[in-house]
Design goal:
Order of helices and strands of chain B: HEE
Largest sheet of chain B: none
Structural class of chain B: mainly alpha
Number of helices of chain B: 1
Order of helices and strands of chain A: EEEHHEHHEHEEEEEEHEEEEEEEEEEHEE
Helix content of chain A: 10-25%
Shape of chain B: rod-shaped
Largest interface: A-B, 78 and 35 residues
Distance between the termini of chain A: 45 Å
Largest sheet of chain A: 9 strands, antiparallel
Strand order of the largest sheet of chain A: 1-2-3-12-13-16-21-22-23
Strand content of chain B: under 5%
Oligomer: heterodimer
Structural class of chain A: alpha+beta
Shape of chain A: globular
Radius of gyration of chain A: 20 Å
Number of helices of chain A: 7
Distance between the termini of chain B: 85 Å
Helix content of chain B: 25-40%
Amino acid sequence: MSAATIAPRTVARHAFPAMGSTIELALAGEEDRDPASAWQLAEELAAEWERTFSRFRPDSELSRLNTAAGQPVAVSPRFYDAVAAALEGSRASGGLFDPTILPALVALGYDRDFSEIDVTTMPLRGTNAVPRHPERSEGSAPPSFGRCQHGEDGSFTATKNRVGRRWTRSASHPPEDADVPAPGVSGIVLDPTARTVWLPAGVTIDLGGIAKGLYADALAAMLADWPGGCVSAGGDLRVWGDGPTGDGWVVGVEHPGDPERDISRVRMHDEAAATSGTNRRSWRRGDAEAHHLIDPRTGTSADRSLWSVTVVGQTAGLAEVAATALFLSGGDPAALDGFAGRVGPALIVEHDGAVRTIDRREH
Amino acid sequence: MTNTTPGQGRRVLLVDPAARATRGHSEGRLGRLLIVGALASFLGFFGLAVIASPPDTSSAATSQPAYSRPATTFFSSDDDDDHDGGSQSSRGSDVRTKTS
């Protein structure tokens, strides 16, 4: 356990590594209360989360499910709820959020803990990586997200076909052999009575992103007897009560080009926020770059027309799903329609650093 | 309804059973309306009280009812962090999001 410190204005802070990220906590409001038990609870819960959701641990519930695809698997209530939340997130996002992108992620080279990946020298296998955007350093306009091209150099941009709330890959642009489009969640069966999950044969899932959001939500609920607090797990953050100023929490949005700076701020009360971006978990693949935000329609890293997306929502799990969907849509506000009334505003940072916002989706 | 029988020197007052039934039905309906009205008034108040209760936001699932926070909006930050001496939080923010 790392050292805990009591900051001025009666805010106790603590940070520790877990789930491939840094977990940060802030508890406010009770000057003479020892937060040590809260820190211990946070670390124990994170360890339990890793044992349940890590795809890099062969003994985790997730790994056991993935290796048993084709037959029903009895799971714990926590794991069942997480899968149910992922399926609901896929439905709300019209398929943009998709836990079945795991084979694509592995094909791209993200097949081990990210800290073990040599991000500079990984060889390029196939075409499923995006070329670097020379425009970023030159400050020119971002490329359009709406047209699909497989260039001679292996480059591509995704096509957006929106039918109702379903986002699909254009039939006129079949996947390259090396791409692994996600099969989707339609074949996954949950049995609430037997509490089993059934994955179709050949389908595997990754719950990494949404699991961290659910961790933030769960820990916030467990620490709710503190007058105010904040849990940050990777890109997912949940606050409750009041911070040091006595009026909610002023949350700075990390600048994707400088993690020591805020690019914007938002005052939050009993809400959550999630940020998805390409400034983290990116790696070189030959002459191209890949990153962890996989477009399920193409099975490859999403277009880099955006740098990062932040969405405010009721819960961190919900905000995580909505942020992923908004990023993969290229910043289209319609991607949030399925979350109406459950997510707040969104902040989008274009690849050239320009910032725009989307108001809360009420309907 | 009143009817007169001719040639018998007396008046016979006939009351139409259907009319009596209608009147009785009307009286019964009025009573039921009063009861239903009183019940609706109580339930209406109770319903409003339930609606006014804050939603439980502790659940981790994504299927949440709509929440009614005051308008949360992003606002511009002062990007010049040099003034806060490089502290953990830039000036004005209590915590900072990370990117995943």
